[in-house]
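User: Modeling request: complex.
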Amino acid sequence: MAKPTSIPQARNQVGATAPVRSFARRVAAATLGAALLMAAPLRAEDTIKVGLVAALSGQSAKSGEAVTRGLEVAIGEINAAGGVLGKKIELVRRDDESNPAKGVLAARELVQKEKVVAFFGGIDTPVSLAIVPFANQAKVPFISVWAAGTGITRNGAAENYVFRVSAVDQLVDGAMLDYAIKKYKTAKPGLMLINNPWGESNEKGLKDASEAHKLTLAGAEKFDNADVDMVPQLTRLKDAGADTIFLVANVQPAAQVVKSLDRMGWNVPVVSHWGPAGGRFTELGGPSAEKVDMVQTFSFSGKLSPKGEAVLAALKSKYPQISSLADVTPAVGIANAYDAMHMVALAIAKAGTTDGPAVRKGFYDIGSYDGLIKRYNKPFSPENQDALGKDDYIFTHFQGAEIVPVN
Amino acid sequence: MLIVSAIVSGLSLGAMYGLIALGYHVTYAVSSTVNFSQGSAVMLGAVLLYTLWITLGWPLGPAVAATLVLAALFGLVVERLLVRPFAVRGSNAWLMATVAGGIILDNAAMFLFGKEPRSLPSSLATSPIHVFGAGIYPLQLIIPVVGVAMAVGLQILLNRTTRGKRLLAVVQNPTAARLMGIDVTRTIAVSFAASAVLAAVAGMLIAPLFSVSSDMGLVFGIKAFAVAILGGIGSALGVMAAGFVYGLVEALVTSLLGSSYTQILVFSAVIVALALLPNGLFGRAAVKKV
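Assistant: Request completed. Predicted assembly structure:
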């Protein structure tokens, strides 16, 4: 009989202490709230916040780190020169874990709670595609500095708030095919695509590009992130007469494709989108990974422009862990983010305010900007919100842990 | 050529699935519960071996031994904290608890091991040999051998030895088993340790063919569970055979019909197979003697 009576007693105890606790909580909350209220306007006047939603963990973590470094070096330069509209710029980062749902949540939090003026996106096309409708609805500029999915900037919105300083799948696909035809005399392309929206986006682009060159495909095969063995897919393409493999995937599955080719003993040219650049491709894929040609927008290898030298020096002094060029791999994330941050600052300066619609117009008013990747001239217009085009791509390959231009 | 390479790929993949699925079988046979963090135990095997052998530079032998001991410990912890507290109350919450445990382990591994996938080098997975014209790494031939040996071993242990019969008695009637002097609690705990060890063995064998990362186990764990159910989870040989069937179907569908349809067709086939044969391809309807 002890049990039934003890429960009401316990409840009473809770009931007795509850008001005391909730009063204490209210006091604490009120104090905190007051402190925040006093602090908030001061902070808001202090800085202009920009956001980043990118993969900071998981297999693409290195990409998020590269983007962060590019943004921070640019922000350092902008702030050293007095900031924008007399205020310093501050970066607020959120991890999307390569998960679209988490990316959208993070974007909402950055816009609604952190009140960012603009925010950048990371390597994953599915995440960026999920954020696009929110950015357009919230009227806050969203700048892709890596994800290349065609539909990210070409999203059909009447008032488009999405800009990009990176490759565009549709253009990359054309460039990959042009390159392969020139270098390998490709006549029958075989496609190896990751089974997600990024793979879909490129399947369409590569098919269109092949059609434009009047080439028939040997086939289009898919694989998943966790697939170990791609021999069945590759054997299909080989049997159908493929003479070049076009590869679209991130580093881990791309490495499995290279290992599968090795096992088959099939020595076929592989022209790849830039996915493998995001990780330790040569460690995972073995020596044959060096034979894969990859699209990039920038490389720190070879002779650099004065701007390139300056950014590399800034990176080395800001991040002591950077000792060799292998540590600024992948360079695309750094370079795209660096140029994008500078252009965001220019757009805000042109707008004269941090109001979203005005900043959007500011992007169209940017005249010329001497960037790391190239000299931009009127980089954005309502018809083309992509700052980089087909002629801005370079082809590279891994040499050890470093990415170097082909030839 | 297409068929031969599909069969070679399918059998070696199937052996991996079967080996992991044996872990589900062991705990189910003894306690009618399974450890849904099995995929994470696969990852644990690969990550521990990488850390001890490559990062810390231990010799291979002690690194493997320590990995197996730590995996067994993980199995014991899962049983003690995530299964027993719920199972004794007759609750099925261990199901969710073990899933959660796996997610916690994956995330802990991400912090400790790092975010990037790494490569576990092995001389058994560098130069392929050719079998009927299809290239295959020696390791891919070893995995099926290990898998079948373990399945046969388990079958003999559980059905032919007194100790094994004791284990099975526990699941038939725990109270009666206890009255006969069988330590039920300890028996179940040992089965969870064995299950995690099997997964860790699979993880160590798969790693050189794939890569080592904190999230590598998830998909393997799911596919292996489908295999375990398909094999009629109560029979070790049935589970291993179902692994081969699953791997073969997966590779053949990809080879003959194209990879766009693989997942849809393979998982549909699993559902159809279970609808037609509720006890799995190789299972028998459970007979409970009252």
